[in-house]
Amino acid sequence: MNTKTILDDIHKVCGPTENKFGNGFIKVFPSSHDQHQEIQNFCKTQGYDFYIIPPIEKRPFKVVLKDLPPNMNTEDIKTFLINSDYPFIKVTQLTQLKTRRPLPFFLVDLVKNERAQKIYDSRQINRISITVEPYRGRNIAQQCFRCNLFHHNAANCQITPRCLKCNGSRQIYARLKKKFPSPLVSIPAKQDMLYLTGDAKNSPKGQQLSKIEQTTSNLIIETSLMLISTELGIMFRSPTP
């Protein structure tokens, strides 16, 4: 089903909307909260792929707690937030992007209200001095772990799940819980890398590694094409009250 048919159906059932194109999606701007809910329910029943952009006032208030030990238990932080009457949603320890090494920084999502702003006045957790700063985010494009597309998160995604390994209709988390055999394309050891330099490329191991490099390159190209050759979807921005 093409985009024109979907927008025509939304117009017939839910009334007129303002529609714009951006980031590979058609942005639908409802005129009221009731129309937003009506469009959302209609698209769910029709099986359309879409995701929702919540309004600013409904997004969580995020801060980072610094100067804590890397082995700090998040349950201790949650206990502190409960005792201090801070309306938190979740507590997550940040990790280094490449190595996934735990960092001494803890991200706290709070319900956006006046009480949440008072967390900047906090000075200690478990008798350890802390620094509270606003969360600035990472300088990378946000990727959804449900459909593996970009510019939105899994919490507000209603797009059909897609696995990056098998391209099937399953979330990548469901696949990570299972144990799979070794991949067909293996990474050569450091001693094997010596065969890729100089005249050693003509050796048996060098020729074998060259085939592996070529296969890996083909896999990367196919994956890239799979990511960019997606059909247009629909996303909805919640109206501002």
TrEMBL record:
Pfam families with a match to the protein in the record: PRE_C2HC
InterPro entries noted in UniProt: Pre_C2HC_dom
Protein name: Pre-C2HC domain-containing protein
Natural source organism: Araneus ventricosus (Orbweaver spider)
Domain Pre-C2HC positions: 75-137
